[in-house]
Amino acid sequence: LLRGRLYGDEVFFSSPNTRARQTAEIVARAVGYPIENIVTEKDIQEMFFGDMEDHPFAEYKESLHGESRFVGGAPHGETGNQLMERDARLFTRLVTNPKLYGKTVVLYAHWYTAAQAIRLAGTPVERLGDRKVGNGESITFELRPQ
User: What pLDDT is attached to residue 145?
Assistant: First the structure.
């Protein structure tokens, strides 16, 4: 998939959120991956912000009243801990799916889910240093059994 070519064993998964799906489709077109084969996976979705959905992040943070977003969450939204649990279930499903054995799984996700994937793959996110991942940027890592 690197350098604009497919290796023939890829399976693209995308969040249903517009930015992630658009990125998946842009890359798919660029490398010749059939767009209709992109799997939309709801559990790759960004944190659900409940009543704060579509509000600026600063307003969301204010709504927590100083509480950690991992413990507290916006009204009718999910907490960071709930998002981590959802991501763990997602990755368990992916790595235990025999249809994916020997495949290159390509995720089009949001930062937090990507960070969880990196952690679960055994690479501490801290090793990325101060580098921030921009929209549409890829992070490549290898999954290996521990």
Answer: 44
- Take residue 26 and report the two structure tokens written for it: 């842009």
75: nearest Cα among 87, 90, 62: 62
Residues 6+ apart with CB under 8 A from 60: 49, 52, 69, 74
Q: Is residue 27 a contact partner of residue 140, using CB atoms and an 8 Å limit?
A: no
- Length, in residues, of the chain: 146
- 30-34, 63-67, 128-132: range with highest mean pLDDT: 30-34
- The model's pTM: 0.72
Give the C-alpha separation, 77 to 57, whole Å. Answer: 14
Per-residue CA distances from 48 to 7, 63, 82, 90 (Å): 34, 14, 10, 16
Instruction: Output b/e per residue, 13-45; b: 16+ Cβ within 10 A.
Output: bbbebeebbebbbebbeebebeeeebebbebbb
Q: Interior CA angle at 41 toward 120 and 95, to 5°?
A: 35
